[in-house]
Amino acid sequence: MKNIKYLIIILGSLLLAWLLPKSYHLVTDIASPNIFTYYSSIDKAFCAIEFDEKEGHLIRKNIKTNRVYSELEFDSILPMFYSTQLFADGRMPKSIDGIDINPRIVNSKKFFFRVKPADKNKPHIPLYTLFESMSGRVRIEMPGDVFRLRDKIEFINPETNEINTEKSEKFNHHFVKRGFQFPAKMAAGNPSTRKAYDEGYFIIDNMNQIFHLKMVNSMPFLKKVPLPSEIVPEYILTMEPDDRSFYAFVFDANKKLHLITTDSYKLQEIPTPNYDVDRDQMMIMANPLYWNVNVVSSRGKEVMALHADTKEIADRTLIEGQAVGTNYSKYFLPFAVGFTSGNTKYIKPIIHFGSYLVLVTNFLLALIFVFIIRYRKQEFQFIPVVWIACTGIYGFITSLIFNR
Amino acid sequence: MTNALLFKEWKKTKWFAIGAFAVGLALLAYIFLKLGRSFRLVGLEHLWDVIVNRDQFLFRDLKYFPLATGFCLALAQFVPEMIQKRIKLSLHLPLPNKKIVFSMLGFGLLALTIIFVLHVAIVLAFAGIYFPKEIISSIIYTILPWYVAGITAYTFMSWICLEPTWKRRIFNALIMFGTLQLCFLTDFPGAYGLIILAVLLIPFYVLPFGYFSVQRLKVGIQD
User: Fold this and answer.
1) ipTM strictly over 0.90?
2) Where is the chain membrane-spanning (chain B) (predicted)?
3) What residues does CATH 2.120.10 cover in chain A?
4) Alpha-carbon distance A296 to A36, whole Å?
5) What are B5-56's pLDDT values in tens digits?
6) Residues of chain B with C-beta less than 8 angstroms from the C-beta of A188
7) CA-nearest residue of chain A to B145?
8) What does pTM read for this prediction?
């Protein structure tokens, strides 16, 4: 009987450890300010749009000089970000830093690349669509099959749910010939027909080698990417930029970012602020002159401007995360249990511990509990008292309710 | 004696069990017809694409069927026992109380498991015709927490019905709603993949709670 009672108290306490902090945050959470930053190719400094508490509206300014700009001025200071507006107004300079600026160049070199932890940490069905890369058609068309990579590559026809043996053997033969080690650790591609061209997949094999897989004229194309020995790839994201200058971004085991270029698959390191692909968010806003690398982490927002051609650092700055009020919950909630997180799509238990000062609260609650059971004329119970000392308010509430 | 007890449970719940199975079949027939229409209209290649690359789940209509079945079976089985405290008669049978309570709960769990296993088997048999094992495994990881929620709902509802006081029933219900939420935290396909074994243990953890309330009844706690 007592054991069942303790099972109920444990379950009730854990539920409170989940729901009480959740309710507290539901009431107290406020949005942390997200400041837009972009490197100005005119001012040669980071410029930002932020909310001015005193003025009560958005202001546009140069972070280094603190000079405030009007909206029209700001367009001209960030010509690469507001290129469409400047071209439409006829205000775009003919050249910047000796580089000719025209819509074709800007559009082909301008891209946005965003990585969130939840993109990597999510359940994934390991089936992949391999398009024909040289169909001769303007529009990319669905190939009529998908492939899986286990101990070999197999193509499956969705209409019949059967394996296309002939195609599978043809591709598998190529994989074996090229030294691919099954099973694959990951395959990165962009399985969308809404893109200008297709570059297939970049696959990490079981020996941490990267292979480029495409289907060209219905034939397999598999090429090994030459990797320096110190680079152990962990995660790859592909992109098909308009200027066809690179294939993919590679995140390695040393938390460094590399670009697989279209120049014979040469790897180019992209300097980034400290970045953890499982916890931080990254955004690269590229233009013909500079790449803006933004990393949002618990430290705040770190921004880096890189020269677009050499990827050397032009400037960097840190916008520290602003304190969003005191979190009083850590003084009375000993820990918080959660099951969901913005960093993953998986459901899994996550525990956050409060301040050690909460032990004082726990001790007081245990003492109050002892007085209450004496008042109720119940016999002294050692286990619930210890439980309250450990779990504080959660154990206290459930022990009071379910103790009898 | 145990057989007589189980026969009594069967008499109480047979129409509900048969009805729940029939409703389940009707729901599956509706889902299969709807999917068959999609197969004809957009083709399987497109459906595979939205499942794999756009994280769509085709069997979402199943979500609350196990939960409702679990709730209703517990009500069908234990509400008659609690009317005029008829369960006291059962507890006077020449059998240990523990055996009586767990036989009743075991019967309900078995009936529910049979309905759910048949239901899932039909879903997987259908899915096996049209989808590869990778998609089937994602389907299993997605629907399993819903069926576990059904069994958990049954064990909690039995606990609430067997509880002799209304005040405690309310607290029991709060624990039930909190725990059941754990099985419905997200609709993202396969999101429970990492903790599916822990989820499967929830009903076993809750199962003895009913016996606790019966013991409270035995010692004379009442409103």
Assistant:
1) yes
2) 15-33, 100-129, 135-157, 169-188, 194-214
3) 113-320
4) 12
5) 889 889 989 999 999 999 999 999 999 999 999 999 999 999 999 999 999 9
6) none
7) A347
8) 0.92
